[in-house]
Structures are given as structure tokens and as C-alpha cells.
């Protein structure tokens, strides 16, 4: 269902649910058809009943009319005909569902093939065409800017350096604006990442040999066949110096937060807003909401990227974690969130093994990727079996294998480059609702790919979600199953003898023994 400015897909009103309904309808129609055919046979047997034959001797006219009526009710224009129509309808319904799925799968494979080929061509072109042309352009621009000088070479080199330094400030905003106006460019470029990696190796063979060697050392497949495998190969190419945290461990420090004046979340806005009751800012915040039956509903807010340095440092919310998450590898941030939730639960006596208190994981950008990765992680689910919900904003999680039993709500902006970084759309299924908002025409929205990633804009989008919940079947169903987290009976808490728990956790990446 669509509303102005917002498009909802998946969930109770999604295509997957409709196809599931067709899958149920087809055998049900066949069963009804079989029952009608049996009833038609039973009516036909009445014509051979000895009593009816005997009645024909006494009242042949009336008996003949009764027999005709029975034949009409049981025959082609009656039960038998209806049975045949229902059988045909059942076959049509089943075929329609299968054809749609096959067509969707075929279209997806075709698009993936085009993306992969485009990536391959681009990868070959970069070292053979793009880089030489770009280098020539830089050198030419530097030559035009070089003034006559007794030390000509030094002046020329200085001009080259100046041109290179100016490129990000000049080209960056233009690229940002183009991607914001044409978001499909990045989506399809990233979707062909495996082709791009292979193409780079073919266009520059020494690089290809190096990538193959690093992949072999890391136990990876080369050439890569999926986007996640391509990201893993690029990560391995760092050789332990960048995008690699294998030589580190994680340190988690708890900072309890006063709950004086605290209020429980009431909608998606409260789960997303930076000043919401469950937001931890730059920290992992774990909020325990006491329920009247003695359980706690736990909301875990995971922070987003805080530094883009490719070299792993003490702050783990960095590009290294981003890269590892996109390669579907476990990160130290995942370990930290798991430990934080265990610690918070232990503070309420709800940390014992097997206690399945409901858990909701949420976050913006990298925080959302981490939340989805934890939902797909058997280690986390074993320690916190009550995991039931994931809420993300601006996060590329379409390729994460979140289990069917976990309800997912994903908020994305059409112009936001980050949700497109995994090269795939979110699945359409009963437990996964995706809300996409087109920011064109929004007065306070930046018309750029990076501006569309603003957490502030996602707060306004979450407010639209809350407004649409009552009229959209997918959002309404999501809200109903999220009641443990959003319907806490505050007035009943003192009588229950429990109090909310809010703890912020500072997470650091450290060297062992450091």
C-alpha cells in the first residue's frame, strides 16, 4: 500500500503474503471440488434407487420430472460442472503463484547478470582507460596552471599536487548530487561488485594475482561469485593493516542511566529519535521495560559509524566494522552488544539461561547492519532466545539472513546511498516490512545521496510511519506484534514491584593485554 511520500512493501499486505494465500487457496479449492464431485455421484446413485424405480411404475410423469431435476443438480450444469470449474480455478491459482515466483526469480537473475557484467566491464576499464585518462587530465591541468619558473619541474609537481587536492572538493559534491538525483546508479554499481573486483584483476593482472593470493590465504573463493564474497576479498587485500580487527579484543564499560522522569517508547518515532527514551547516542544503550507478568522487554539501541578511518583503532564504530559486516563476518561490535545485553539482563535477575524475555534490536546505518547481523547470528540468538524484532534506518540489510521468526522494520530513503551498498532490495515476506520515502519535494531534505542519510530526516520519516500505521495493513500488523515494547502499562509498574533499567555501554577496541 502506498501513501504520499512513503511506500510500504512486505509484511501482512505484501506480495509474499498474497502468494502464500494463493498457495493455501489452491488445495482448498481442490478439496471443495472433490466434495462437490462426491455429492454429484451420490445424487446420480439416487436415480438407480429401487424405490424410485418402483415409483416410476405408479407415477411415471412425476418420477421422470424428479429424475430430470436430480440430473440437472448433479450434471454438467450443476454440482459436477461446478466441481470441474473449481478444479480448473485451483490449477489456475497454483500456476499463477508459481509463474509469478518464476518470473520474479528470472527477472532478478537477469538483472544480477547485467549488474555483474557491467561491473566486470567497469573493472577492466578502470586500470586500462579511466585511470590513464584521469592521470592525463590531471597532468594536463597542472601544465596549464604552471607558471614559467627557473625551477620548472618543482613548480609543475606542485601544480599536480594542487590539482589532486582539489579533486575531492570539486568532484565530490557533484557526484553526491548526481547519486541523489539518480540513486539507481549506485544500487546497480554495488550489485555488480563481484564483477568489478574480477574486472580490476583482469585489467591490471598484478592486482589480480595479489587479490587471488590474499583470498587464498584467508580461505576465500576467488574469483568471488557474490557481493559479500567480493567485499571479503577486498577486506583480505588489506593484509592485516587495514579493515582487519583480528588482532584486537573488545572492552565494554557500563554506565547506568537515571530513570527519573523516564517514559517508555510509544511508537517508531521513540525508537528512532536521537532524543528518544531508548537512544544511547554514541553508546550502546540497553533499556529494560518491566512488564506486568514479571518479564522485561529489552530494547537495544546500537550506534552508527563514528569514524571512517580504514585502520582499526580504539573506536570500533568505524569503516573496518562496516566492511566486515558487509562481508557477513562477525565483528567485535557484535560481541560487545551481546555482552551489553547480557549484563543489563543480569542486573534485573533476568539473565539466566533459557529466559526468553522479548528483545528488540535497532540502529541507524552501521547500527542497523549490526542489529540485523545479530539477529542472523546463532551465538546471539542462543544467549538471547527472546529476540523478536529488528528496527533499522538507512541500513543495507537486504542480504542479511534474518530468520523468519524475527519481525523486521526497515526505513529507507530512495536517495540515500547507504541502504544500496549491499546491492540488493529487502525481501518481501510476512515478517519484513520496508518503508521507502522519496525525498524529492521535501522542503528540509538535502537533494544529495549523503544528505538523504541524515538521522534527522529518518526521524521525520518515522513520524510518517506512526501516522500511517492505522491505515496500512503491514504497519498495523507490525505495531500489533511489537506491543511488548510499545504498550508498557506505566501505571501498573509500581504494583508489579519492578522498575525500568537503562544502561549505556562504552565500547572500545583494544589490544590483548593492553
Keywords:
514 residues, alpha/beta, 10-stranded mixed beta sheet, 18 helices, globular
Order of helices and strands: EEHHHHHHHHHEHEEHHEHHEEEHHHHE
Mean pLDDT: 85
Given as residue ranges, the uncertain stretches (5+ residues, pLDDT < 50) are: none
Strand content: 5-15%
User: Which outline best applies?
Assistant: globular
Report helical residue fraction: 40-55%
Summarize the main sheet: 10 strands, mixed
Radius of gyration: 31 Å
Number of extended strands:
10
- Sheet with most strands: strand arrangement: 1-2-9-8-7-6-5-4-10-3
Helix/strand structural class: alpha/beta
Q: Treating each run of at least 4 consecutive H or I residues as one helix, how many helices?
A: 18
Structure description:
By secondary structure, this protein is an alpha/beta fold. 53% of the residues lie in helices and 13% in strands. The protein is built from 18 helices and ten strands. It has a ten-stranded mixed β-sheet, with helices on both faces. Strand 1 and strand 2 form a beta hairpin. Helix 4 runs antiparallel to helix 5 (152-181) and helix 7 (193-203) packs across helix 8 (205-217). The two termini are 54 Å apart. The model has no long low-confidence stretch (mean pLDDT 85).
Helix-strand layout with pairing:
Layout: E1 2-3, E2 6-10, H1 15-46, H2 50-58, H3 60-74, H4 79-145, H5 152-181, H6 184-191, H7 193-203, H8 205-217, H9 227-236, E3 249-256, H10 268-272, E4 284-290, E5 296-302, H11 319-326, H12 332-346, E6 359-364, H13 366-375, H14 378-383, E7 387-393, E8 407-413, E9 432-437, H15 455-468, H16 473-481, H17 483-486, H18 493-496, E10 501-510
Parallel strand pairs: 5-6, 6-7, 7-8, 8-9
Antiparallel strand pairs: 1-2, 2-9, 3-10, 4-5, 4-10
Helix pairs in contact: 1-3, 1-4, 2-3, 4-5, 4-6, 4-7, 7-8, 7-9, 8-9, 9-11, 11-13
Amino acid at each position: 500500500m502506498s501513501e504520499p511520500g512513503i511506500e510500504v512493501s512486505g509484511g501482512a499486505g505484501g506480495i509474499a503474503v498474497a502468494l502464500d494465500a494463493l498457495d493455501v487457496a489452491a488445495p482448498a479449492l481442490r478439496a471443495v471440488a472433490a466434495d462437490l464431485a462426491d455429492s454429484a455421484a451420490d445424487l446420480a446413485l439416487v436415480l438407480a434407487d429401487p424405490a424410485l424405480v418402483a415409483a416410476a411404475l405408479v407415477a411415471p410423469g412425476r418420477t421422470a420430472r424428479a429424475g430430470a431435476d436430480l440430473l440437472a443438480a448433479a450434471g454438467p450444469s450443476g454440482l459436477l460442472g461446478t466441481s470441474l470449474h473449481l478444479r480448473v480455478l485451483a490449477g489456475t491459482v497454483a500456476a499463477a503463484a508459481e509463474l509469478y515466483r518464476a518470473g520474479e526469480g528470472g527477472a532478478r537473475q537477469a538483472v544480477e547478470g547485467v549488474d555483474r557484467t557491467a561491473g566486470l566491464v567497469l573493472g577492466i576499464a578502470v586500470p586500462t582507460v579511466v585511470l590513464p585518462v584521469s592521470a592525463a587530465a590531471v597532468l594536463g591541468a597542472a601544465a596549464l596552471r604552471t607558471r614559467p619558473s627557473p625551477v620548472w619541474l618543482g613548480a609543475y609537481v606542485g601544480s599536480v599536487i594542487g590539482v589532486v587536492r582539489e579533486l575531492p572538493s570539486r568532484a565530490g559534491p557533484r557526484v553526491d548530487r548526481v547519486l541523489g538525483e539518480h540513486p539507481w546508479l549506485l544500487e546497480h554499481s554495488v550489485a555488480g561488485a563481484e564483477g568489478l573486483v574480477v574486472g580490476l584483476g583482469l585489467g591490471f593482472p598484478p592486482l589480480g594475482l595479489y587479490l587471488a593470493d590474499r583470498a587464498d590465504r584467508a580461505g576465500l573463493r576467488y574469483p568471488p561469485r557474490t557481493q559479500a564474497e567480493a567485499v571479503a576479498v577486498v577486506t583480505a587485500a588489506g593484509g592485516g593493516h587495514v579493515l582487519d580487527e583480528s588482532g584486537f579484543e573488545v572492552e565494554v564499560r557500563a554506565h547506568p542511566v537515571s530513570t527519573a522522569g523516564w517514559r517508555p517508547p510509544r511508537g517508531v518515532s521513540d525508537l528512532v529519535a536521537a532524543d528518544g527514551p531508548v537512544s544511547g547516542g554514541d553508546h550502546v544503550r540497553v533499556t529494560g521495560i518491566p512488564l506486568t507478568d514479571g518479564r522485561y522487554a529489552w530494547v537495544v539501541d546500537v550506534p552508527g559509524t563514528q569514524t571512517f578511518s580504514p585502520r582499526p583503532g580504539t573506536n570500533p564504530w568505524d569503516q573496518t566494522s562496516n566492511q566486515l559486516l558487509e562481508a557477513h563476518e562477525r565483528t567485535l561490535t557484535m560481541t560487545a552488544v551481546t555482552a551489553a545485553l547480557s549484563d543489563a539482563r543480569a542486573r534485573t535477575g533476568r539473565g539466566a539461561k533459557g529466559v526468553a524475555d522479548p528483545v528488540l534490536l535497532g540502529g541507524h546505518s552501521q547500527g542497523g547492519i549490526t542489529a540485523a547481523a545479530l539477529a542472523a547470528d546463532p551465538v546471539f540468538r542462543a544467549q538471547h532466545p527472546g529476540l523478536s524484532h529488528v528496527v533499522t534506518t538507512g541500513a543495507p540489510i537486504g542480504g542479511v539472513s534474518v530468520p523468519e521468526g524475527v519481525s523486521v522494520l526497515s526505513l529507507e530513503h530512495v536517495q540515500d546511498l547507504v541502504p544500496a551498498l549491499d546491492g540488493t532490495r529487502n525481501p518481501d515476506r510476512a515478517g519484513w516490512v520496508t518503508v521507502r520515502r522519496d525525498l524529492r519535494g521535501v522542503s528540509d531534505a538535502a537533494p544529495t545521496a549523503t544528505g538523504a542519510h541524515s538521522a534527522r530526516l529518518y526521524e521525520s520519516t518515522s513520524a510518517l510511519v506512526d501516522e500511517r500505521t492505522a491505515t496500512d495493513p503491514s504497519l498495523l500488523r507490525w505495531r500489533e506484534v511489537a506491543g511488548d515494547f510499545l504498550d508498557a502499562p506505566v501505571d501498573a509498574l509500581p504494583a508489579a514491584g519492578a522498575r525500568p533499567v537503562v544502561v549505556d555501554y562504552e565500547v572500545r577496541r583494544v589490544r590483548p593485554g593492553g
